[in-house]
Each structure stands twice: as structure tokens, then as C-alpha cells.
Amino acid sequence: MFRKSENRIFYGWIIVAGASGLVSLIWGCDGTYGIFLPELATDLGWTNTVLSGAYSMGWIVANGLGIVAGRANDKYGPRLVITFSVAVTSVGFGLLYLTKNPWQLYLYYGLIANIGMGFLGVPVMSTVSHWFVKKRGMALGITQAGVGFGAFVMPPLVQMLITRFGWRISYLIIAGVILGVGLPVSRLMRLDPAEKGLRPDGAEAEIANAQGEVAVTNSEGFSFRQALRTTQLWLLFAIYVISSLRIGVAVHLKAYMVSFNIPEMTAATIIGIRSGARMVGTLIISKLSDRIGRRRPLVICFTVIATMSVWLIFIREPWQFYAYSIASGLFGAGSVLLTAMVADWFGMKANGSILGLLYIATGIGASTAPLLIGYLVDTRGDYQLAFTVLAIAALAPVLLSFALKRPEKGDYTIKNDLSRSQ
Q1: Residue 208's beta-bridge partner residues?
Q2: Angstrom distance (rounded) from CA 184 to CA 110
Q3: 19-33, 270-284, 302-316: range with lowest mean pLDDT
Q4: For the packed helices 384-393 and 247-258, what is the interaxial angle rounded to 10 degrees?
Q5: All residues at 6 or more sequence positions from 357 whose CB lies less than 8 Å from its CB, including other chains
Q6: pLDDT above 80 for 205
Q7: Environment class of residue 83 by beta-carbon count within 10 Å: exposed (0-12), middle (13-18) or buried (19+)?
Q8: Which domains does the chain have, with CATH numbers?
Q9: pLDDT grade, residue 91 (50/70/90)?
């Protein structure tokens, strides 16, 4: 039986709040790797290549688990999967206190912590998509904004912790906070509105999209095999790979600014502002996409990011980095638009598995860029060539996004087709 959700908060928004809190905490902590990087290099005497390699390994591990995490979420539900994620992530960060040799960094962070984080992203985003249709963009935007909030708060906070306690104790504090906050929140998660006797968006009947057409249910849509046979899925895969290369810039941004004699605390603040701007931009752009479609905002986002990537090669002053961080943050919402497109186009039948495949694409780009940058910096002594290569690559998603379109009905036919993402 389905029941009304009137006179009470629709449980889907509790799902969104929990999901946003989890990614804010865990990915916010993970996003401070660039803050720890100079401290580890100084204290342990390691090269940028060694330190970047652990981060790259982490992305390979976490995103390589995307399909496994998605299938587990579809089968067992988010409570079990996310509880596992929180526990393992906390253990990995806690063990970093013991790090003395490179192999320990690769084991504790690159493997253990990222196995935990690998079971967070896909389950969280897929679960939120199950609970909304008409407001899917806004719901995913609020969830994704949690990443921006965490990345806004954590860099200066972690820098203060490191200054006061050192990097080892700081990792222990992070581990404790993840476990203490993450476990209770994970218990709130539910995969399907029907578990609460509800429909998506809290409606009393079938949900119509912005064009007045009834959306597919959780049991309809493309199967994973059917999605694999569509050109659009592989176009999305390519966009995910290339657009995620910019994550390498985030890892090295603090060290890049410090190389121009910008104080560490200023650099950490600039990184935090970039993340805060992304939080605001994600909320605005995702809500707008529910009204005008996903593709036009996506093209704008990728265009601004490409422009900022070119400008980054030439800037040197703090005010320029502030401007770069605000602009690249505000228009860094492409990932949430792509996530919404996947749900809009392919339905929810195999959403976890499809998102899992695309998270593997993210892992390819995000693991390649930090290592490439670290190697070029170690061999050439500066960041110019590395950032030039990434700036050129940033132009590709702009061009590819013009080719995006909803899969043809010939790819897979359902009675009530989705058509919001035009």
C-alpha cells in the first residue's frame, strides 16, 4: 500500500540530508590529501611522484569498485553497503597514524581507505535517484553540494589540526569523526520509497516528468546489458574519464600556490573557497536543470572549466587564485548533471550498475592526472607542462557534450519513455 506523505517531511529529503552529510564528511576528509601532501613530503622525505601515486592508486581502487558497489546496493540496499563503507574508511584513515614507509601509505590509504570510499559514491547517488523524478536534479544537487561543503570546511580545519597536533594525530581525529558520525547516519538510508509505503517525490500517483510523461518505475528501464549496447553510455564514459582529469589539479593546487610563495593557510583557504563555490553552483545549476534540461547547463559548465584550466597556467597572485577558485567552483557541477542524465535516460532498473561503470571512468581520469602531474613536476621542476596538457584535455568534454542525446527507442523500448534530458 502506498500512503500519503502530507503533514510530515517526505522521507526522501531525509535520505538526501543523510547522503549529503555522508559525502560531506567522508569525501571532504579525503579531499584534504592535498593539504597533507606537503607535510608528508617534508616529514618523510618522499617525492611528489611517490605521494601522488598513492592518491592515484586510491582512485583506481575506489572507482574500480563502482560496479560491485552498485550491484551490492541494488541487491542488499544502502544501509548495509554504506555501513561497510564508513567502517572500512575509518580504519584506513586511522592506520595512517602508523605510516613510516611508502608501502604503508599505499596500503592504509591507497587500498583500505579507498575500498571503504569505493562503497559510498555509487550507493549514495543511486539511492537518492530512486526517491525523486520531478525533483531529481535538485535532490542530486543537494547531495553533491555536500561534497562542496565538506571540501570547503575541511581544508582550513585540517590545516589547523596539522599545525596544532601534527599530521599523524590529525588522521586519528579524522578516523574517529568518520566512524562516530557516519555509522548512525548510514542506518537512515533506504533504497526504495516503497519500503516506506511511498512513491518517488512523495506523490500519491505515478510521477510525470517536466513534459507531462510518466517516468519509469524502479523495476523498469534499461538492464545493464542493454545500456552497454548504447552509444550514449560510452560517450558518457569518455566524458567522465576526461572531465575527471581536473581532479589532479585539486591534489596539487596547494603545492602549486606555495611554489609562488603564497602562505600555506592562504592556499588552504583558497581551496576551501573553491569547494564552497562549487556547493553553491551545484545547488543553483542542478535546480535549473530540472526546468530547462541538463545539456545546456552542462555545456556551460564544461566551457567555463576549460577556460579556467587555461588561465591557471598563467596566474601567480593570490587574488587570481581566489578568482580561479570561485569560477571553477561555481561551474564545477557537471558531475551531478551527468548523474541525473543517467537516471533520466536509462531508468532505475540497473542504475547502480550503470553508475558504477561510469565511476570506473572517473577513476581512470582521476588516477592518471595526479601521477602524471607529480612525475612531470619531479622531472621538470615546475607545473607548467602538466597544467598545459590538462588544459588542452579540458576542451574535449565541451565538444563531446554537444553530441549527448537521449538513447533512441530502438536501443530499448519502454511504454513510458524518459525525455527530460534533451
Answers
A1: 214
A2: 26
A3: 270-284
A4: 150
A5: 66, 67, 228, 233, 237
A6: no
A7: middle
A8: 11-200+216-401 (1.20.1250.20)
A9: very high
